[in-house]
Amino acid sequence: MHTVPTTLLYSLEGLDDLDWERLLALQWPEGSFFYSPASTAAAFMQTKNEGCLRYLENVTKIFDGGAPCTYPVDLFKRLWAVDRLERLGISRYFEFQIRECLDYVYRYWTETGIYVSRYTNITDVDDSAMGFRLLRLHGASQIVFPGEKILHEAKMFTTKFLRDKQASNDFFDKWIITKDLRGEVEYALSFPWYASLPRIETRFYVEQYGGDDDVWLGKTIYRWYAECKLDEYGLVKDELLKAFFLAASSIFEPERALERLSWAKTSFLVYVLTSYFKEQAINIKSRRQFALDFVGSSLCPARNASGRYLVFALNKTIESLSLDVLAKHNRDIHHHLEESWKEWIIKWQLGEEHEGWESREQGVELLIRTIELCAGRSIVPEIAPSKETPYDRLTYLTLSICNHIHQEMLKVKREDDYNEANTNGNLNELQMQELVQRVLDNSDDLNQDTKKTFLTIVKSFYYNAHCPSATLDVHLSKVLFERVD
């Protein structure tokens, strides 16, 4: 410890038999020992070093006669402030400040990482890991891009370490101020980043999270359910509640209530259509007739009562969402929304004859388009059709990943009726890494919020695959109904 800097320099006041003259060679430029006022004070008492005195006088002047356990912490405080704002689900109110904080950290980032402050070449794991994760998430890197084997190895090591701690019930960490470290670890192990929905993570992290707006939206959806006569098809409201829960857990900002509502309605209508035609063993001819009824519904009524109710529900939903978007964004999306539904229904009714029908049956692309339209954004950029656009690639990756997850869930359900599917196939993992990379990349002209919609939908599929039904019920209750004491 007398020849190279180690963390022992942080606690010199508690050590005996030290060679203080040799230790002075490890003193940091501003006069401290490892940014520790206590350690530096001990060194000053033994050596009367002027550098130690200058550091201590500066600290006590800044803190009006007192001193924190560590100073300065200019990198640490910025990183942890950003992390807490994001965990609390309120980062959208501090976008400018977050950008300033991360720009500051990036300015002093080194190839070997960082420590709590910019004034040293020493690095440590926790500050470097936090900085790496936040910088990459904000476009500068927990997130793995294709070919980064070291992060895969780090994930395996940390997962094993945490599972060992979990098994031995050893969750003590003197550096972490948290009420429920065990709960944070258990949630992180059960729901990896791909499968973690922001509002669920927030609800388990904070002590208070209001839900008044979602109660109102929930009543709106149930009223829509009754007015559209969807109860005629023998479908329980639990699926509607689940659809709204996934939407509310993924898009939780109050100002995005319309996107949340459109997600829940669209997802449930897709479920109604696919379930009804499957359960009634309706043949392909009848399914195609329904598609024709909807496509031509503006010209003539549907031929049968069941089809008429469904066509009515679709048209009413399209009309309602279009009016809401017109009022909020001053944009008429009726034609685009109707065409999106027609395109999905035509491809869906072709069934197995059409490539990629499994993911389209789940309405993934339709859901993305609906959310984008209800957010007031265009759904497809105008680029030559002969060239694959960033939007096309994101669509392909999203459909492929969601289809894989859906097929894994079906396979697991057939085998043992257990809800957690294997979503970690090599191909799927590589595609997910590419999707994340493309979403975080700022080099193309595609709207950043549009790209995030693709990732949001995929994460909801991952969550649904990872979450056993009993756990989902607990999460649903906590997010939508329970108030925190």
TrEMBL record:
InterPro entries documented for this protein: Isoprenoid_synthase_dom_sf (IPR008949), Terpene_synth_N (IPR001906), Terpene_synth_N_sf (IPR036965), Terpene_synthase-like (IPR050148), Terpene_synthase_metal-bd (IPR005630), Terpenoid_cyclase/PrenylTrfase (IPR008930)
- Cofactor(s) for this protein? Mg(2+)
Terpene synthase N-terminal domain sequence ranges: 19-139
All residue ranges annotated as the Terpene synthase metal-binding domain in the record: 227-345
Question: Where does the source fall among the domains of life?
Answer: Eukaryota
Keyword field = Magnesium, Metal-binding
Statement: the UniProt record of this protein carries the keyword Magnesium: yes
Concerning Pfam families, the annotation shows: Terpene_synth, Terpene_synth_C
Gene Ontology biological process = gibberellin biosynthetic process
Q: Per its record, what are the GO molecular function terms?
A: magnesium ion binding; terpene synthase activity
Q: Which GO terms describe its cellular component?
A: chloroplast
UniProt entry tagged with the keyword Aminoacyl-tRNA synthetase: no
UniProt cross-references to PANTHER family, sorted A to Z: ENT-COPALYL DIPHOSPHATE SYNTHASE, CHLOROPLASTIC
Q: What is the name listed in the Swiss-Prot or TrEMBL entry for this protein? A: Uncharacterized protein
